[in-house]
């Protein structure tokens, strides 16, 4: 299995995939290196899988015997048809692709593409989304070869700008969250709707995931940008509780038992650090250099040097020391 494939695998996530890319960009900034990246989205990926190649690659990684025969039988002789309203087409035999909706199909797909980028040193993959990049002090040669230069790019749901300020991303995040809030506002208490507890549950299920998506990637956004995120929660709590607009955010959080966004973000950062620490020592996320977690065997605490990390400003410990310590 490609270690840089982050989809459909235990202890892997979109956040970790983008974090690996962003950390390398920041390391390049320190060396005055430019980063040139290519984003690839494989069109019709699951429908274009060469089934015989899947069986071959399964055997190549050690799958054999009855299990291999079972999977080969599962992939052969498959048929499909179209259904439009009440009209059904004739059944046709399919020669390519893995069955849609099957639990095993995503795994078969990432095994099929595992060697597609084997010769590229710096890359990440998330299912059919691939990203490869290179870094150099001299960018002029690479710029001449770039056909479509952009000032920002959405990478697995996170908008990356040229200087990693994440201003565009936080603007989009706030807009999405306000859109989700608008759709549930008609049900909330301040306009004669449901109980406050149900309104809070709707906020947590429909709005807050937008605010927290991949936060470890963009946690170094400016305070001005983060305040746009905080404002979404305040308005949501106002509508859910039915209180007047001048109610302070702190009072709303006490009334609704919803923690401040800053505390939620600190918790997310701490959890992500723990997940990275659990990875093998040769994992790229553990080997990125300064700013990533390192375990001190002499104490029963996780010591994390985040002075140069994008996972910064989490405020979980005394700022007068050189390291921040998260106690297990």
TrEMBL record:
Signal peptide per UniProt: none
Reverse transcriptase domain mapped to chain residues: 1-182
A Pfam family hit: RVT_1
Organism domain of life: Eukaryota
Record-given protein name: RNA-directed DNA polymerase from mobile element jockey-like
């Amino acid at each position: 299995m490609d270690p840089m494939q982050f989809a459909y695998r235990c202890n892997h996530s979109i956040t970790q995939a983008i974090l690996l890319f962003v950390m390398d960009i920041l390391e390049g900034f320190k060396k005055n290196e430019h980063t040139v990246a290519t984003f690839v989205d494989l069109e019709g990926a699951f429908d274009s899988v060469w089934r015989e190649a899947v069986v071959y690659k399964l055997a190549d990684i050690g799958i054999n015997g009855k299990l291999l025969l079972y999977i080969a039988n599962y992939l052969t002789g498959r048929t499909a048809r179209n259904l439009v309203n009440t009209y059904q087409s004739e059944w046709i035999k399919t020669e390519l692709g893995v069955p849609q909706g099957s639990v095993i199909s995503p795994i078969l797909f990432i095994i099929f593409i595992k060697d597609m980028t084997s010769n590229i040193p710096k890359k990440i993959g998330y299912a059919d989304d691939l990203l490869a990049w290179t870094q150099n002090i001299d960018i002029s040669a690479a710029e001449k070869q770039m056909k479509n230069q952009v000032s920002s790019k959405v990478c697995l749901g996170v908008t990356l700008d040229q200087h990693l300020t994440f201003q565009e991303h936080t603007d989009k995040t706030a807009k999405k969250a306000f859109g989700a809030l608008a759709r549930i506002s008609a049900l909330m208490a301040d306009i004669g709707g449901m109980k406050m507890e149900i309104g809070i549950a709707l906020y947590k299920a429909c709005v807050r995931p937008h605010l927290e998506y991949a936060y470890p990637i963009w946690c170094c956004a400016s305070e001005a940008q983060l305040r746009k995120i905080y404002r979404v929660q305040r308005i949501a709590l106002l509508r859910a509780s039915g209180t007047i607009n001048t109610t302070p955010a702190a009072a709303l959080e006490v009334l609704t038992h919803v923690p401040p966004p800053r505390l939620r973000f600190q918790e997310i950062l701490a959890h992500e650090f723990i997940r990275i620490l659990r990875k093998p020592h040769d994992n790229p996320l553990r080997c990125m250099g300064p700013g990533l977690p390192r375990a001190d065997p002499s104490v029963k605490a996780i010591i994390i040097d985040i002075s140069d990390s994008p996972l910064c400003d989490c405020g979980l410990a005394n700022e007068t020391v050189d390291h921040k310590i998260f106690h297990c």
